[in-house]
Design brief:
The protein is mainly alpha-helical. It has helices at residues 8-15, 29-40, 50-55, 65-72, 86-112, and strands at 21-24, 44-47, 80-81. InterPro entries: Transpos_IS110.
Length: 113
């Protein structure tokens, strides 16, 4: 199995393989950029819910990147096509940034207490 960085360089490496479809697990803000990038390049982007992945019998107790990638390719029939939804993505980004803010506030409280 080959790993690709979740950045422009990694996306360009994937494009060199000339894929017609990309299947991925939408993991919050980490999936937004890649989904949008490939969609803009004319590649069909399918997403398999993390909940659906974890419900699969063979996944129980083995939820790792390697197993995720291995099983994603067999779950294309359960995937939904990515549709850009700016509001949903802004909410996802807001929640992500809010979590970061809370973490830092808690650190500061512990440090100065």
């Amino acid at each position: 199995m080959r790993r690709y960085e979740n950045n422009l360089k990694g996306y360009e490496e994937i494009l060199k393989m000339k894929p017609c479809t990309i299947v991925l697990e939408p993991t919050g803000v980490y999936a937004i950029r890649s989904s949008q990038y490939f969609k803009e390049k004319g590649i069909k982007v399918l997403q398999v819910s993390p909940n659906m992945l974890s419900r699969e019998k063979e996944f129980r107790g083995k939820k790792t990147d390697f197993y995720d990638a291995e099983k994603l390719e067999n779950m294309v029939d359960k995937a939904k096509e990515y549709e850009y939804n700016p509001l949903r993505e802004l909410v996802t980004l807001y929640l992500f940034l809010n979590d970061i803010e809370v973490n830092y506030r808690n650190r500061l409280k512990r440090h100065y207490s």
